[in-house]
Amino acid sequence: MKPSVPARRAGWHRLLSMRVLVPLLLLAYACFFGLYTLGREMAHREQQVEEHVREDVTQRMTHLQGTLEYLLRTGQLEAVREELADLGSSPHLTVGLLLDDQRNVLAATRLALLGHPVWEAWPELIHPAALTRMKTARVRMSGDVRVSEDGSRVEGYYPIQLTPQPLGSQVGILYLQHDLTQLKAAQRYRAERSALRSSLLLMLIAGLLGLFFHFALGRRVRRLELAAHRLAGGELSARAGLRGVDELGTLGRAFDEMAERLSQDREALRRSEASFRTLIERTPDAVFVHRDRMLLFTNPAAVTLLGYTREEELRGRAVEELLLPGEQDPLAESSLPGSAREVRFRHREGQQVLGEVVTFSIPFDGQPAEVSIARDVTERKQVQEKLRTTDRMVSLGTLAAGVAHELNNPISYVLSNLRFAVDELGEAGEAGKPLSDEQSQEIQQALREALEGGERMRNIVHDLRSFSRREDEHFGPVDIHAVLDSCASLARTTIRHRAQLVKEYGEVPRVLANESRLGQLFLNLLVNAGQAIPEGDAKANSVRVTTERADERWVVVSVRDTGVGIPPENLQRLFKPFFTTKPVGVGTGLGLSICHGIVTAMGGRIEVSSEVGKGTTFRVFMPVADKGEQAGGKVKSA
């Protein structure tokens, strides 16, 4: 569908268009410039008028000062009056007065003012400012020509010596007032015409630029604007197609390059989305997308994992419906990087499905959501369980000969003592005689020894049953010394021909573990320690079991042997499945791998250090149980 062309701007919005706005700005600038030029030109011209008139008045009064003083010294008062009367012909001279020392008018540009006192002839000269200026001129005997404060006239005060010096010091004042209003009005008129010419010229330039913007640039800008609207409407093939080496042409080419890049990115994004959808739909791992604990999306693997047939059957369901009781949190909380958590899912038919789940946050449909990726590990857990059981049976098989010997000894003297008791009782019965005290004591002794032998056999069978039965998943406080004692009893027959078994127990609390798994772990370590020591010199070698508390959180159990040691190149691969340093047929390579898995599953860790020819030390760190802590036995050796 072709995107609609944007509607034309109406009303004052058209003023925001470049082809209208730029000419308007130029016109506004022309008006502003004209007004600014007019004001500046008028001020400049008025200042020139004031300076010119002030200089002219100064020159005229300086000339008159000398002329009038000469005429007065020679007694030519009429000539003085004629000199001032001639000044009246000047159209801009308002008045000219010669005052005597009593401020009476001796001569004037107006004959009607002769002989009158100054306050009648020209009242302005009795103002305090005028009186001060006349007094200053008499005292300093120098002229003073200034522009009035309102700028309308120029006033000059010059002292005139009325009589020769020998006759006294009578000083008069020559006063001239020159009008500036007409001169300034003429200059303002000229300034207005000059500013008007400049403004008209600028307006003409603004009009020409407006036409240029409208026809040369406006259309190109309009093309660029339409192309941008089409691109924003989803038409990625839209191009401005502008040419030229100016900025607008460069902008048009940049826009076309951007549109081309967007088109390429849009296509790449479409292909990426298709690939991503294919990857999600075909991945064997189940993918759940949920927000506020409600399912938004599931892939086919998730549908199959839970026993459904269509994705729509799961969409909109609460997360709690997919999980067994107690398994809500793993899907709601984000996982740590690289870590997965086991979750028990509820199959549609009711059975349990075990999965390893990683949860993280991503935006989905423009809003935050959680993604949980689950891998079905039900079969793998079953295989691991079988491997653990197999390894346990292998360990017990390794101990079978020693266990048979351990059982054979008590069986022999149990049977021997029972036969002795039967024979003694039989002989006494045949003879019809009661047993003597000595015979009774011998029979009781034989029965007690038989009972001890039976207890010994029962303990051996109990230890065997403890490590051969299928373990449960229960974790709780475990007495680690009791577990070590049971393992030592089973492994003693394997170790005693190779080394001495030494137990050094410290005071440690109970650990949080599974007793059966813990027994399998230490039985493997003890058997491996014994097999690492060659037969022949049991007194010179030892397998030492040590317990101690590392800190408030950990109990460490060390199993150290004085065997052949492990080469450094093998230490890194020691806990990998099917890796073994034993001869073919002697080991499966699963023992230490299973040990590592057992320790990790119970929240602990295992470390190993070895030196070729000097022996190996395995250190198992187990977490302290929060409840039911009890100290183990005191340090002892065996």
Automatic annotation (TrEMBL):
Residue ranges occupied by any PAC domain in the UniProt entry: 339-389
Listed EC numbers: 2.7.13.3
Domain of life: Bacteria
Keyword Zinc tagged: no
Subcellular location: Membrane
Keywords recorded for this protein, A-Z: Kinase, Membrane, Phosphoprotein, Transferase, Transmembrane, Transmembrane helix
Enzymatic reactions: ATP + protein L-histidine = ADP + protein N-phospho-L-histidine
Domain PAS: 272-333
Transmembrane segments: 20-38, 198-217
The keyword Kinase is annotated on this UniProt entry: yes
PROSITE patterns in the cross-refs: HAMP (PS50885), HIS_KIN (PS50109), PAC (PS50113), PAS (PS50112), PROKAR_LIPOPROTEIN (PS51257)
CDD domains per record: HAMP, HisKA, PAS
Span of domain Histidine kinase: 402-626
Domain HAMP residues, every copy: 215-267
NCBIfam families linked to this entry: sensory_box
PANTHER family: HISTIDINE KINASE (PTHR43065:SF50), SENSOR HISTIDINE KINASE (PTHR43065)
Name of the protein: histidine kinase
Species of provenance: Archangium gephyra
Lineage, top ranks: Bacteria, Pseudomonadati, Myxococcota, Myxococcia, Myxococcales
